[in-house]
């Protein structure tokens, strides 16, 4: 057997229903908020992420699946969706065709990280992005959408954390303040942090090394260094959050691990899934579209890790309300009639099964049990002669004779009425 690659996983029946539920709930929700689906390639030019996600991020420095293809091009398996969606927005001038460009995407992402519970090398995100709106009302609406998503999935014990990381006008003063506050102590931090202090001091807040934490906790807060317009923007976001009635906590450490963020950043943390507890993260990226060669348009969005949503969802959340029907037959003529009935049931939108090996009625009913059939439709010589079907309710064991001509209506009424 050739096993799956470390950090990747198969999603099998039994679990896939929970994935389908995440996809169904989010798709319906996104559409209610005016988002349209976009699908972009899994491979992109390496420079899209080098420029977009940022040269100083862990993702670009350590985690990209990048290779040279047979034509000599540097290619990357996308580590995140935002740069791809910005590229698509620019490449197809989506603002011409969409009055408010709001787009969403589901799909696999790839990061060469150390695998553990909730952290994979191929994982899946659902991602939403809005372009061209500076007003803080959109920040709050995006946060409301994120909150509605976890609520509708029934995920309890969650916390929304928000912060503002400022803009290119106020960021340099904050970076300087960080370096100054660290002073000589920078030498006590891990090698990664020492590098960060020189290239992008904000990244120090991403550090997970335990010994570094006490010092990092003493560092200045970005919200104390915001320029007037960033300060006003963040105050308005907080005011709108109160209007929406969404509870949140301010966290000055939330700078997020990607370079493009400006102003609002946020994450939703789940209490019951272990160390990898960020189920969703996002923020505003007002310079990214221009930086990637597009018009000067602001943007904001978030991505949620589907594996982590599925982990955090309550147990019963996968139940799909399926009502399988089993067609059992005795004898060759009855079997042909059963196959025609099977076809009719499926054409009528019902889930229907049979036993293919032509075994005894007893083993057919065993198969019906294993398939958790709600009803068995039984056809033998007697039923054929009378133009009827025997319907057995598999839960109560009650039986009824139903005319063949009326069987589809009979089943449909019971399946949609939930009377199984
Ligand atoms: P991110 O915080 O890197 O942001 O990822 C978003 C979410 O993806 C995380 O909160 C987590 O649930 C999930 N995730 C990330 N890495 C892994 C992994 N190795 N295994 C499992 N799940 C993972 C972004 O990707 C930004 N593009 C979000 C965004 C959209 N910002 C603005 N728009």
Number of helices: 16
Task: Tell me the major beta sheet.
Answer: 8 strands, mixed
Strand order of the largest sheet: 1-5-6-11-10-9-7-8
Number of strands: 16
CATH topology of the largest domain: BirA Bifunctional Protein, domain 2
CATH top level of the largest domain?
Answer: Alpha Beta
Helix content: 25-40%
| CATH architect. name of the largest domain | 2-Layer Sandwich
Structural class: alpha+beta
Q: Spell out which ligands are present.
A: histidyl-adenosine monophosphate
For the CA atoms, what is the radius of gyration? 28 Å
Shape: elongated
Task: Give the termini separation.
Answer: 41 Å
* Proportion of strand residues: 15-25%
CATH superfamily of the largest domain: Bira Bifunctional Protein, Domain 2
Number of structural units classed as domains: 2
Poorly predicted spans: none
Mean pLDDT: 94
